[in-house]
């Protein structure tokens, strides 16, 4: 553990805490506006433009409305758990940021420190533990609710937490194995090491970092990166995995009974959690505050304060992935959602980690091999599904051909025809039609059916 941590004076720690709190609140307000504008662009709409410059005041108005709105609790809810649930979610959303590194060593008010509140020898596990506490807030909110919609949302969140935290944990294990540390700061610095670069003409390996290409783990551990990205969407209950609060099925899911300030706590926690998992993704897989290649070759861009800006841009780009998924995908069916976690992500992560443990230097090769194998398995399953669908269609077509004509009154009740079936003319029914000259012509269809 670097001695620079836990050596800051108390007033500097207080400044970091207040700065982090204000940053997350302002960032959340901006992201509410950012989501609406980005989705508006994707869906060919304008988005918020009326309140404030560029519509930035819309999020402030929504926050003020939630704070001053009537905050009531239904009669049949559990008072203690009902109030505790949003507090847990909000507490976990802020706490996870305490071990996220924003930049390297800087000088603040004459004190050498890092733009990170603190670091721990097991910081990566600390983030996972805090994320679990946030999910418990959702589970307890559904349990304390007074209706079935809240309860079903809490049950779904429980299954979702168990399924996708396993996959997320396995994805992070790959990073810990590669970096040789659980400290978030050391994981970022481990990605600053150059990777072997071979001259295509002479075969000479360059290991001194002159080429500037460093080993970010999104490339070296690509399967872990993809699994983490999928799992982080499932952990934050965002589309297409927003099943605990599916509006089209469960009204508002676990939040159905909440309003006012307590609802605002859940709303705030949701957006901060999206930033949290995005920041963890940047820290573990995208180099954290490190400047990307080839910008890291330019002298003067290694300023740690620029690293803070680079970190914010990276997190915002990963955050934009949530917006893209919401605007471009549909909600998963629940059994498909569980199948993805238990039958695919966990197995792929386990097989990949075993391969990396056997041959650590071949992690990138195993990543490419895993992607190829998964593609061919998916293509094979897709082909079998199409063949089964064609076979089923042929069977249905054959059955319908055999029932091309039928008696709708054979069972005593009128039965509507299926596609491909032909109705015989009904006995005793008189049909009429108006001719071109305006007269009415009636036809008796008694002959079309035996009495």
Q: What percentage of the residues does DSSP assign to strands (E)?
A: under 5%
DSSP strand tally:
6
Query: N-to-C SSE series?
Result: HHHEEHHHEEHHHHHHHEE
**Roughly how many Å is the radius of gyration?**
30 Å
How many independent structural domains?
1
Indicate the mean pLDDT: 78
Helix content: 55-70%
Strand line-up of the largest beta sheet:
1-2
The major sheet is characterized as: 2 strands, antiparallel
Give the structural class. mainly alpha
Shape: globular
Q: Please report the distance between the alpha carbons of the first and last residues.
A: 95 Å
Enzyme class: translocase
Catalytic activity: a quinone + NADH + 5 H(+)(in) = a quinol + NAD(+) + 4 H(+)(out)
Keywords: Cell membrane, Membrane, NAD, Quinone, Translocase, Transmembrane, Transmembrane helix, Ubiquinone
Membrane topology: Multi-pass membrane protein
Structure description:
- The chain is mainly α and 451 residues long.
- It has one domain (10-358).
- 58% of the residues lie in helices and 5% in strands.
- It is built from 13 helices and six strands.
- It has helices spanning 10-42, 57-68, 79-95, 123-144, 148-179, 184-190, 217-220, 222-235, 247-250, 260-285, 304-328, 334-358, 363-402; strands at 105-108, 111-114, 197-198, 205-206, 430-434, 440-444.
- The strands form three sheets. The chain has a two-stranded antiparallel sheet.
- A hairpin with a 5-residue loop joins strand 5 (430-434) and strand 6 (440-444).
- Helix 1 (10-42) packs across helix 10 (260-285) and helix 4 packs antiparallel against helix 10.
- Mean pLDDT is 78; it is low at 426-431 and 445-451.
């Amino acid at each position: 553990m670097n001695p620079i941590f836990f050596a800051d004076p108390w007033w500097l720690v207080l400044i970091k805490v207040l700065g982090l709190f204000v940053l997350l609140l302002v960032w959340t307000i901006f992201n509410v506006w950012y989501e609406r504008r980005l989705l508006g662009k994707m869906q060919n709409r304008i988005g918020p433009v009326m309140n404030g410059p560029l519509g930035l005041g819309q999020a402030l108005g929504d926050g003020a409305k939630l704070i001053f709105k009537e905050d009531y609790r239904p009669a049949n809810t559990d008072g203690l758990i009902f109030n505790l649930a949003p507090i847990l979610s909000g507490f976990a959303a802020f706490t996870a940021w305490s071990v996220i590194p924003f930049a390297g060593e800087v000088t603040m008010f004459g004190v050498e420190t890092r733009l990170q509140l603190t670091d721990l020898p097991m910081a990566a596990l600390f983030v996972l533990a805090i994320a679990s506490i946030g999910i418990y807030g959702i589970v307890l909110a559904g349990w304390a609710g007074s209706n079935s919609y809240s309860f079903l949302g809490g049950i779904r969140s429980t299954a979702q937490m168990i399924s996708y935290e396993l996959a997320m944990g396995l994805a992070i294990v790959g990073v810990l194995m590669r970096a040789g540390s659980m400290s978030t700061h050391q994981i970022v610095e481990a990605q600053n090491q150059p990777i072997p670069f071979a001259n295509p003409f002479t075969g000479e390996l360059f290991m001194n970092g002159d080429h500037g290409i460093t080993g970010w783990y999104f490339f070296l551990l690509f399967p872990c990166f993809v699994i983490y990205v999928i799992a982080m969407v499932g952990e934050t209950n965002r589309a297409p995995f927003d099943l605990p609060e599916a509006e089209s099925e469960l009204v508002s899911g676990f939040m159905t009974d909440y309003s006012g300030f307590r609802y605002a706590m859940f709303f705030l926690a949701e957006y901060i959690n999206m930033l949290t998992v995005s920041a963890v993704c940047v820290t573990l897989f995208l180099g954290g505050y490190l400047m990307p290649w080839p910008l890291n070759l330019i002298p003067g861009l290694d300023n740690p304060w620029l690293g803070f800006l680079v970190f914010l841009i990276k997190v915002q780009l990963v955050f934009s992935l949530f917006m893209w998924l919401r605007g471009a995908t549909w909600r998963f069916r629940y059994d498909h959602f569980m199948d993805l976690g238990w039958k695919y992500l966990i197995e792929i992560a386990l097989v990949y980690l075993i391969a990396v443990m056997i041959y650590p230097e071949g992690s990138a090769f195993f990543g490419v091999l895993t992607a190829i194998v998964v593609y061919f398995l998916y293509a094979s399953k897709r082909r079998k599904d199409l063949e089964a669908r064609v076979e089923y269609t042929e069977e249905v077509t054959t059955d319908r051909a055999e029932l091309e004509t039928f008696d709708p009154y054979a069972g005593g009740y009128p039965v509507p025809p299926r596609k491909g079936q032909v109705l015989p003319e009904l006995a005793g029914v008189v049909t009429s039609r108006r001719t071109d000259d305006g007269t009415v012509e009636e036809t008796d269809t008694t002959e079309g059916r035996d009495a």
